[in-house]
Structures are given as C-alpha cells and as structure tokens.
Amino acid sequence: MHRCDVAKLLHKEDLHGFEGYPLSAWLCLAFVESKFNASKIKENADGSFDYGIFQINSHYWCNDYLSHSENLCRTDCIELLNPDLLSTVNCVKKIVSGGGGLNNWIEWKLHCSGRPLSYWMTGCRLA
C-alpha cells in the first residue's frame, strides 16, 4: 500500500489523535513494522505469528488457529490482513489503550519514538 493511502484509511478510522498519537506516528509504526504491507505475516521464534500492517501478534491479540492465543482483540488473525484495515484498527486501539501506548511495539521504540515524525504526512491529502 502507498503511504498516503494508509494515511487516508487510518484517518477515516479515527486513529489521528487516538491516545494522543498523531497520524504521522501511526504511519511511522506501519512502515517500520511492515513497510505498509497489509498482508505481511512473520513467524516468531516462540511459534507465534505477527500479522498485517502493524504486525499484531497471534499469541496475545488474535486467533490464528496455529498456536495458543489469548485472542484479546476477539478476531481471527486472517482479518488483520484485510486491506480495508478495519479489524486492524479495532485491534490496535485495544492494544494502545490497554497501557504502554505505541511502546508495545519494539520497532516503535527503536525507530519512531522521540523522533520528528511530521514528514510521514508530506504530500498526503486526507480528503
């Protein structure tokens, strides 16, 4: 997906300002986790999998029917691969509002947190 298309979808789903994070923060996270690839799946050393544009983990957040899951988002992991990002946004809101914010993602802490982020929106029109 293109960066500005992701921005439009996330804006439409009210992520701008959610838990105090601007849209540019969400774009940085999506890029460092998946390079804006909504269909990305990554296997982890513990046997769990990370799904979608924000690489949401199956051990805690969704059910992939392959490994034990807390399924805290009450969704099938396959839904997190949908390019409309609806299930992804619903789940990510639960993750971020549950404590720790975007610091729940190691890649956020390594590559986005505390850095200028406004350039992620350069050239994007949301309307």
Helix-strand layout with pairing:
Blueprint: H1 3-12, H2 23-34, E1 41-43, E2 49-51, E3 56-57, H3 86-97, H4 106-111
Antiparallel strand pairs: 1-2, 2-3
Helix pairs in contact: 1-2
Description:
- With 127 residues, the chain is mainly alpha-helical.
- It has helices spanning 3-12, 23-34, 86-97, 106-111; strands at residues 41-43, 49-51, 56-57.
- A three-stranded antiparallel sheet has the order 1-2-3.
- The protein is globular and about 40 Å long.
What would the keywords be for this entry?
single chain, mainly alpha, 31% helix, 127 residues, globular
Task: Summarize this entry quickly.
The chain is mostly helical and 127 residues long. Helices cover 31% and strands 6% of the residues.
Our estimate of the beta-strand percent is 5-15%
User: Total number of β-strand segments?
Assistant: 3
Q: Which geometry do the CA atoms define?
A: globular
Element-level helix/strand string: HHEEEHH
The helix tally amounts to: 4
Structural class: mainly alpha
What average pLDDT do the residues reach?
95
| Biggest sheet architecture | 3 strands, antiparallel
Report low-confidence residues grouped into runs of 5 or more: none
Distance between the termini: 18 Å
Gyration radius (Cα, Å) is 14 Å
Helix content: 25-40%
Biggest sheet: strand arrangement: 1-2-3
